[in-house]
Predict the structure of Large ribosomal subunit protein mL54.
Amino acid sequence: MSKRKTGTEEKATTTHLFYHKNAPDPIALADDEYPDWLWDLLDENKQRAKVENPANRQFHKKANREAIKAANFMSNKKT
């Protein structure tokens, strides 16, 4: 699997990513030190495949969301 490059140098300090108050800025790792699933989040084809596969939670979540929207649309229609 080919990983994407972050464009950040290894051991570089990333600024403005404060997730803890009064904590130092996080330090970027080398691209190969990050887990494989993280790179899958950036791959649009893999994310689309999750939504189209009935074995995944995202498929059912999308189907439920569309069913709720359709029901709301029909209930708001004036007869």
Observations:
- The longest helix spans residues 57-76.
- The chain has two domains: 1-42, 44-79.
- The mean pLDDT is 79.
- The chain is about 45% helix and 0% strand.
